[in-house]
Amino acid sequence: MKKEEEEAEIDRLPIDLLAHIFVFMTSFTDLARASSVCKKWKVGVKQSLARRENLRFAGWKMDDDSTARLVGHAYSLRELEISRSRWGCQISDNGLYRISLAKCIGNLISISLWGWTGITDNGVVQLISRANSLQHLNIGGTFITDESLYAIADSCPQLKSINLWSCRHVTENGLLFLVNKCRKLKSINLWGTRVSVDCFIGLLTISPALQIKPEGVLLNVGVAAMLPVV
């Protein structure tokens, strides 16, 4: 009886309720500390990760190992953001490969790899190849090529929006292939790419309702379409 009276109130909570509390913790550092308190809390933290529908690592000092481990425990995950920031993650192609093995990847509807210049087509293709439910993808600021676009087109039939901001190595061939296969695509950001006005005309010919950014380029497309053929 005396032992029960000395026990902290929070330690009397069932694991299920502890997990519910840990879901509201946004600091991965705090979660790691909580996990090291005792075996019961460790189980609670693991269960809380399994319930999360989104993970955002921007601003956190994560690496391949820690990121893959957290994603691996997030069985209910729907949105994954690994955007680069000044203090952000250090993710490589190996990290993307390990993340691609997580059980949740097939259920993801949104992925952001914004600004990761260190990743290549190899890592992106590995990750995308299992993301069959993906609807929104942000790979702006990366050095991907048409190889990634071909993989996205083949693996993501539900894709609705894609951000290719400043992806200077994608070409007209890859973009046309992507838009032609992803018939649900509604929005594409091509700001800073090196494609011509003819490419924009080709994309709109395939999908007239497609919203292309930057919007100003559409004025040029309209003018070009009205010019007589010489």
TrEMBL record:
Pfam families referenced in this protein's UniProt entry, alphabetically: DUF7885 (PF25372), F-box-like (PF12937)
Cellular component terms (Gene Ontology): SCF ubiquitin ligase complex
GO biological process, one term: SCF-dependent proteasomal ubiquitin-dependent protein catabolic process
Domain F-box/LRR-repeat protein 15-like leucin rich repeat: 99-181
Domain of life: Eukaryota
Domain F-box: 10-42
SMART domains, alphabetized: LRR_CC
Record SUPFAM superfamilies: F-box domain, RNI-like
TM region(s), chain numbering: none
InterPro entries membership: F-box-like_dom_sf (IPR036047), F-box_dom (IPR001810), FBXL15_LRR (IPR057207), Leu-rich_rpt_Cys-con_subtyp (IPR006553), LRR_dom_sf (IPR032675)
PANTHER family: PARTNER OF PAIRED, ISOFORM B-RELATED
Name the record gives this protein: F-box domain-containing protein
UniProt lineage: Eukaryota, Viridiplantae, Streptophyta, Embryophyta, Tracheophyta
